[in-house]
Amino acid sequence: MHNKVLILDFGSQYTQLIARTIRSQNVYCEIHPYLMDAESINDFAASAIILSGSPFSITNKNAPHPNQAIWNLGIPILGICYGMQLISANWGGEVHAALKREYGFAELYVSDSKDVLFDGLKQTEQVWMSHGDALSKLPECFDILAKTDNSPHAAIKHKTQPIYALQFHPEVVHTPCGKKIIANFLFRIAGLKADWTPGSFISESIKLIRDKVGEKKVILGLSGGVDSTVAAMLLYKAIGNQLIPIFVDTGLMRYNEANRVKELFASYPDLNIRYVDAGTSFLSKLKDVSDPEQKRKIIGSEFINVFDKVAKEYSDAEFLAQGTLYPDVIESVSFAGPSATIKSHHNVGGLPDKMKLKLVEPLRELFKDEVREVGASLGLPDSLVQRHPFPGPGLAVRIIGAVDIHKVQLLQQVDDIFISELYSSDLYNKTWQAFAVLLPVHSVGVMGDERTYDQVCALRAVNSIDGMTADWTELPHSFLKRVSNRISNEVKGISRVVFDISSKPPSTIEWE
Ligand code: XMP
Q1: Hey, which residues are catalytic here?
Q2: Residue nearest to atom 4 of ligand 1 (CA)
C-alpha cells in the first residue's frame, strides 16, 4: 500500500499529535522508532517522511540519528524541530545550543508566501516553539521561508528537492495554522490522496482478516465496550460464523451489563455469543487482594483460563481476537525501539505460552475516535459507539482495597445513578469518561436521628482526546448536587460523596 506517511520518532512528547493531525486529514501514517533499518524503511514504501522533535540535543555525541537510507529515497521529507536540525546537519548546516530555551508562542513572519507549504497562510501567524538548539548556519542549498523574532530560520526549504524543515511545532493546537501547513505538505508537496476513511479501513481489514484466518475459528472476548464490539462486527463481516464471541461476566462489570449486552446483540441472532458467568470464580480469586497490580494480574489470568477452556471445545480454534488500539501499541514501544520499552500494555504483551492461540488485532492501527467512526460506519447504534471507555479489570480497580460482592453492588448502584443522570442532563456525550470510585474510608454522617458511619465514594469525570492526558470536567454544581443527593438517599452504605478535581498528569484517570 503506497499513499502513506512514515513518522520517525526521536522521542518528542508531540509525536502522537503528528500522527493524529495526519490521520484527521484522512491520510494513513505510522510512527516508527528512529532506529528503523534501511530494509524496513524500503519495505514500508512511504510517500513522505516526517522527522519528529526530540528531547535530545543534536550537539550531543549520543544524539539519535535516522538510518542514512532516508536521504536517498527521493521522497518529500518534513523535519520538525529536532527533525530540522537533522536535515540541516545532513546538508552541512551548523547547529548551536541556544543560550536560552525558547518555549511558548512566537509570531511567524512568512517571507516566502508563494511557497506551497505556506499556501493559504497569512503573512504573520502564531506558532508554538519548544527548542534549545537552533540553526546557526543555513546549509547552502536551502532557502529561508519564514522567521520569528528569535529564530531567523523558523522555516527552511531545500532549493531543488522537496525537503522542508520547521523550527516550530505545527502539530500542536497552539499553532492554529499547523494543520494547514501539514495539509499543504501532504497534498500539495507529497501528492498524497485523502483515502484513509472508515469505509476503506473496513474493506481493507476484511481482506486482511480473511487472508490471515483462512478457515480457522477465532475466539473473541466481547466486553460490551466500543473496542471489542467494533472488533466483533468487523470480524463477523469478514468470517461470519467462524467467529466465537465470548462474553465473560466477571462480576466486576457495570450495573446490568450482561443484560444490556444481550439486548444489544439481540438483533444479530446469528452472531452466536457464548455467555460465561464467571463472577464467583473472579471474586474468589480476588478475595483479600488489595494491591492494584496484583488485581490486574489475577483478572488477566482468569480471562485466559476462561478463553482457554472454551478454545478446547473447538479443535479448529486457532486465533484469539483483541481490541488493541494504536495508543496501546505506541505506548508499549519506546522511540528507541523495543529494547528500551518503558511500559508494557496488558493488551500488547502477547499471550502466555501455554495458550496455543495466535493473536488477531484488527483495530491495532486505530485511535479511539477512529474506532468510533468505524463503528458508526458498521451500523452500530450511537449509544454504543459513544460509550465511555471501561477498563478490562472493571470495578476491581475502582474499589480501592480488597474487593467483595457487597462493595461491587454498592459501587454499581452509585455508578449507575451518576451515569444515568449524565444521560438525562445531556452531559454524557460531552464527557470523555465518567465513573464512581469506592474509597476504603468511613465517615460520620447523620440519617434521621441516627448517627451513621458509612463509606465515601468519589465521582470522576474527565475530558480527553485519547486518555493519554486529561482534564477534570467542570460539571455544573446543580448537577453534582442532584447526583450527590440521589446517592446519599438511595444507596444504603454511602454517607459522603466527593468530586475528584485532579488532572492527568500528574494523576491518572483511574484511581488504581
Ligand atoms: P489511566 O488510569 O492510565 O487510564 O489514566 C487511561 C485510560 O485507560 C483505561 N484503563 C484501562 N483499560 N485495562 C484497560 O482495558 C486496564 O488495566 C486499564 N487501566 C486504565 C482507563 O479507564 C482510561 O480510559
Answers
A1: 81, 169, 171
A2: 509
Residue 289 maps to which CATH number?
3.40.50.620
Tell whether 326 and 415 lie within a shared domain. no
Distance 391 CA to ligand 1 centre (A): 5
Shortest-distance Cα residue to atom 3 of ligand 1: 508
Which atom of ligand 1 is nearest to 390's Cα?
A: 22
Q: Helix, strand or coil for residue 504?
A: strand
Residue 222 CA, distance from chain mean position: 19
Whether the Cβ atoms of residue 320 and residue 220 lie closer than 8 Å to each other = yes
Q: Which amino acid is at 356?
A: K
What is residue 328's predicted lDDT score, i.e. its pLDDT?
A: 78
Cα–Cα distance for residue pair 213/220, rounded to 1 Å: 13
431, 463 Cβ separation under 8 angstroms: yes
Query: Is residue 392 a part of any domain in this protein?
Result: no
How far is CA 310 from its chain centroid? 30
pLDDT in tens, 348-386: 555 566 667 899 999 998 988 899 999 999 999 999 999
Q: How many helices (H) and strands (E) does the chain have?
A: 14, 18
Pocket test for ligand 1, best of 508, 510, 511 (most atoms within 8 A of CB): 510
Q: What is the rounded (10 degree) CA torsion for 293, 296, 301, 307?
A: -160
Structural Rg of the chain based on CA atoms: 26
- What's the pTM? 0.81
Q: Residue ranges of the chain with pLDDT lower than 50?
A: 338-346
Which residues contact residue 214 at a Cβ distance below 8 angstroms, ignoring those fewer than 6 apart?
none
Domain membership flag for residue 22: yes
- Own/partner contacts of 372-379, CB < 8 Å, gap of 24 or more, are 372/226, 373/198, 374/198, 374/201, 374/202, 374/230, 374/234, 375/226, 375/229, 375/230, 375/233, 376/198, 377/198, 377/199, 377/202, 378/202, 378/230, 378/233, 378/234, 378/237, 379/233
CA angle, 392 as apex, 296 and 406 as ends, to 5°? 75
The Cα–Cα gap between 69 and 210 comes to 34
On whether the CB atoms of residues 95 and 58 are closer than 8 A, the answer is yes
Helices (H), 378-404: 382-385
Ligand 1, residue 464: give the atom nearest the CA: 24
Q: Check whether residue 108 and residue 221 sit in a common domain.
A: no
Other C-beta atoms within 10 Å of 359: how many? 15
Query: What length is written for the chain?
Result: 512
For residue 394, being part of any structural domain is answered with no
| Interatomic CA distance for residues 475 and 422, integer angstroms | 9
